[in-house]
Write a structure and sequence with these properties.
alpha+beta, Uridine Diphospho-n-acetylenolpyruvylglucosamine Reductase, domain 2, Uridine Diphospho-n-acetylenolpyruvylglucosamine Reductase, domain 3, Enolase-like, domain 1
Length: 284
């Protein structure tokens, strides 16, 4: 493994100064993805700039919504005393990410910035209409999270930009959501995964959000399925149509873990399970 320098700034300003001096340096959070890439000879950075010692990036603030610092670990999400009551789908997804050891060091921002199609934390954030806060030394901006992902390993971040936090509004009391994941074995990466959120008024769907993982170049909002469900009375026939449309909306690949045909089938099944769970219907 090629040698590299390692820096541990104590502030964002210091981190940006280091990045300006070493343009090819990589920002690092928990390191559960970047260090693997370095060991496998896929990445050759001259330096790593750790963000772990910057206090403002590691916090969860609840105030009519939530601001989650990008350096918040997955374990901190799981054990936060209030987060589950407001965003249970986010915490449930966090519980399915890797092992306890990985969750203790992996961060929510790192999971997003790796921009893997199977990023577990991306799906609940997509259905919760999250925004990501991006900052440079001179400016900051917020964008919807579905605009953050551009391709495998490619985000909307500019070279000197840092993902500093995730912004969430409080969901309505009528909102119900679920996260489902199909892997080969426990703690495996997803063969396919799905998050769904619905706001119902009686039997009519007022709002639908669905997002699928491991079935496209990026974590994918299923916009066509959402449009099909919103404003309608949900029936078995409509659920079946949503399954078919979801299978047609994804673009999976065949790899060592599953075929593209199997992934399409799994997405269809997960859509059915998610909708029936949210609606309280029998799964038979």
């Amino acid at each position: 493994m090629k040698r590299f320098n390692y820096y541990k700034p104590r502030s964002l300003d210091e981190a940006w100064e280091l990045k300006e001096k070493i343009p090819d340096a990589l920002f690092i959070a928990g390191g559960t993805d970047i260090l693997v890439g370095i060991k496998n000879g896929e990445l050759y950075p001259p330096a790593l700039i750790s963000l772990r010692s910057i206090p403002e990036l590691n916090s969860i603030k609840i105030n009519g919504g939530a601001h989650i610092g990008a350096l918040t670990t997955i374990s901190d999400l799981i054990h936060h005393p209030a987060l589950y009551n407001i965003y249970p789908v986010l915490v449930e997804a966090a519980k399915r990410l890797g092992s306890v050891q990985i969750r203790n060091v992996a961060t929510i921002g790192g999971n997003l910035c790796n921009c893997s199609p199977c990023a577990d934390m991306a799906l609940p954030l997509l259905v919760l209409d999250a925004k990501v806060r991006l900052q440079t030394a001179k400016k900051n901006r917020e964008i919807p999270i579905d605009e953050f992902f551009k391709g495998p390993g490619e985000t909307n971040l500019t070279p000197n930009e840092i993902l500093t936090g995730i912004v969430l509004e409080s969901p309505r009391k009528s909102a119900k959501a679920i996260f489902l994941k199909k892997g080969r074995v426990r703690m495996d990466l997803a063969i396919a995964s799905l998050a769904a959120l619905m706001e119902m008024e009686g039997e009519k769907c007022q709002k639908a959000r669905l997002a699928a993982g491991s079935v496209a170049p990026v974590p994918l909002r299923l916009f066509k399925v959402e449009a099909q469900l919103e404003g309608t009375t949900i029936t078995d026939k409509l659920v079946a149509e949503a399954q078919q449309l979801a299978a047609e909306s994804v673009a999976p690949i065949t790899d060592i873990r599953a075929t593209k045909e199997y992934r399409r089938q799994i997405v269809s099944v997960l859509v059915k399970r998610a909708l029936k769970n949210i609606l309280g219907w029998s799964q038979a």
